[in-house]
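Researcher: If only I could read backbone structure tokens as easily as an amino acid sequence. Walk me, if you will, through where the backbone shape changes along the chain. I have put the entry right below:
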Amino acid sequence: MPSQPDLLPLAGRIEIFRQRLVAIAEQMGETLARTAYSANIKERRDHSAALFGSRGDLLAQAAHIPVHLGSMPDCVSAVLAALRLGPGDEALLNDPYAGGTHLPDITLVSPVCVGGRVVGYAANRAHHSDVGGIVPGSMGVTTHIDQEGVRLPPTLWFAAGREDRSERDRLLAAVRTPNERLGDLQAQRAANAVGQRGLAALIERTGARAFDELASALRDYAERLMRRAIESIPRGIYESEDFLDGDGVSPRPIRIAVRLTVEDDRIVADFEGTDAQASGCINCPLAVTRSAVAYVFACLAGPRLPHNAGMFAPLVVRAPRGSVVNAVFPAAVAAGNTETSQRIVDVAFAALSRAVPRRFAAGSSGTMMSVSLGADDPHGGGALTFYETVAGGSGASAAGPGASAVHTHMTNTLNTPIEALESSFPVRVRRYEVRQGSGGAGRHRGGDGVIREIEALVPLHASVLADRASHGGRGAAGGQDGSPLRVTHVRGDGSETELPSKAHADLSPGDRLRIETPGGGGYGPPPRKKKAGRVKDPPRRD
């Protein structure tokens, strides 16, 4: 007798199949968050999980970090090109020039086996709060990739179930917090084990042939939805440009330009005219650029779109080799993943808004606002490192105002709760509040950023990688820009020094780092203020 799903129409079977895959990926993410050691993964959930088919094709993703998820297919492809994975194998990777994004993002790829045969892969990526390099947290102003930490090309960590400790020890010897790193890596293994069991059980339940048929149908469905979304855009060529504040070495603005060519049912995103890769760390590998473009069109396609290999088929990305959006070795890339990815989204949305203006919001804060802290453990336990991104304001739209104090676009993390930060690191949070009035004015106002002020209790080294110091999120349809970023070093004597958007600072006990994140842009012209008229005297009573 056929199973119940076989009695359903094909569309129903596909949707049930999709939700089962997504549920497995979500369970992977929950496992990773619950078992991780670092606050960055446990509290902020700076991680992502996905499932892949036997040929490395993306099957499903959890709703995690867009910059991770859109680039993970390139990472898995790089692993499969370099290594032949079998039962009991597990591979690590973080090299941006071999499928990675930036060095703190370590990806673990594990094959899923049924009957001794590889039928798919479970993969997850987590941002580790230190992977070595010249600054604590591995997210500072740098000029060479090797200044940013240890690089791992596709590397076999476990072979047939046996650990290769030499590779693990090479990584741990390079970092400042080896115990925390090992704990987070073990959490990644636990997450992939959940994915392996879940995907194997689903294949055994449906049967290999039916599984392949449903996976193919789901990919086709995603491709059709993406092509349908593209068909809703008027044919033509739409261009836009925007700038990063600088690269951390020079204040010269860095140009990001895009030309979107809307053809029958595909998009060509051409970044010709974008500046050459910079001396500083705002360069990004092509995988990050592809990820940002895919995110933009996933937003256009809407929430029904399955995030799998099919959604990428109608998207063609062209980026000059050696440019800031297609960097080559030895370019530094720490902020390319965080800041340049955001600017790529901004320029792509701005170009599309020329075609369908009411479908797109004003610009959001435009930065992930990365903060890294390093200190010696006051209890004598060695070094401590901490990393977080700080929320900003989202752009308003024709539908209403923007949201305040949220992570936007290529980041999708939570905040670090004050309790978690103060219990794990020698700091005190003096202020954490909405930055009132920082959203751009308009018929609908942009969302406000936040103010986060952190006091050092011991000598600290702080690194900031952010952007939008000249203006906040761009206004749309006559709306005004949001307030720009401000980062201030407040000394114990009360004196203040405003820092650039990409900077280092040494904090003495009692010093504070105050971060004021950008607001989102307003939408539509602001309402006119009524002129105050002369108040008439009340009528006389004789």
User: Anything to note?
Assistant: The first strand starts at residue 47 and ends at 53. DSSP finds eleven helices and 20 strands in the chain.
